[in-house]
Specification:
Blueprint: E1 18-26, E2 29-32, E3 40-41, H1 44-50, E4 57-60, E5 66-69, H2 71-77, H3 85-106, H4 120-135, H5 141-154, E6 158-159, E7 171-172, H6 183-198
Parallel strand pairs: 6-7
Antiparallel strand pairs: 1-2, 1-4, 2-3, 4-5
Helix pairs in contact: 3-4, 3-6, 4-5, 4-6, 5-6
């Protein structure tokens, strides 16, 4: 075999890095998906060099060097450190979102986006739901919905026959008490809890 056709040696990455999942990029401002991390600004040179987009990762290496990584490349090369609470919450929220999306599609609702395409409010809602159930492991579906309802009230949402986050005020057909929800909507809360508990 010629030298040029030989397989190059394979290396495994052992680096530890700090990273934030990107919810949105608006000009020079990056908004992280993780709860507790405020939007932050980057330099023009960072945008020009890395062209970050929602769904990818803002990465900080040892020594303070900052970079950007597309989601697929980053998630194939790195796994969350087990005691990194923010990362654990994010991973559980993504799983909950995927299960909910599949369930909605089984009902003929094809409106649910992939996690990487979901708006910030939807990702934050899923992560807050995970935080609630990790803090209240015995909470049932009704409590799950009431927590969601309280979050929506605080954000200014109201009842509407059609979900419209862009309305003024935003509307949601599930903006009602748990017992008033259709059975298929109540099932979403049970599914959410089951996914969260599966990570215990």
């Amino acid at each position: 075999m010629s030298e040029t056709k030989r397989k190059m040696p394979v290396y495994r990455c052992h680096k530890l890095v700090h990273a934030l999942h990107i919810a949105s990029v608006d000009g020079l401002v990056i908004t992280p998906s993780e709860i507790g991390f405020a939007p932050f600004s980057v330099e023009h040179s960072f945008l020009a060099k890395h062209e970050p987009v929602a769904g990818g990762y803002f990465v900080v290496y040892a020594g303070g060097y900052t970079s950007y990584s597309p989601a697929e490349a980053f998630e194939q090369g790195y796994a969350p450190v087990e005691n990194n609470t923010s990362n654990v919450i994010l991973q559980i929220a993504k799983a909950c979102h995927s299960v909910n999306k599949a369930y909605c599609e089984s009902l003929g609702d094809l409106s649910q986006p992939e996690w990487r395409d979901a708006p910030v409010w939807q990702r934050e809602s899923a992560m807050k739901g995970v935080v609630f159930h990790r803090a209240n492991p015995d909470a049932g579906p009704a409590a799950s919905h009431e927590s969601w309802l309280a979050e929506k009230k605080a954000a200014g949402w109201v009842y509407g026959a059609v979900k419209n986050p862009d309305a003024t005020p935003p509307t949601h057909p599930c903006f009602t008490e748990y017992e008033n929800l259709p059975k298929e909507q109540q099932a979403k809360d049970a599914l959410f809890i089951a996914v969260v508990r599966s990570f215990d």
